[in-house]
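Kindly review both lines to help learners:
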Amino acid sequence: MRKIILTALNTLMLVSIAAVAFAADGGVTGGFGLAAAGIALGIGVAAAGGSVGQGNAIKAACEGTARNPDASGKISQSLILGLAFIESLVIYALLVALILLFVKM
């Protein structure tokens, strides 16, 4: 039940950020004031989510290595691969934010 609620809130948050990022042109800030705020909020959420995910992955890898030191090689390989995937999602969010920024200019 908790997972469903978190997924629904996450979806609602992403939809509201997209509405801010694609706001109508115009305004006193050169036309991208709301878009810049949405972009900053979006990349901040992506970075925070990525850091939480990386922290949980490192915690689990340390616990796994502590329980079974013989498997530290395989755990390290899986950890590095997982961290690369998490970081690629944050970089993808940065690219989307930059695309939104330069399209709104």
About this structure: DSSP finds three helices and no strands in the chain.
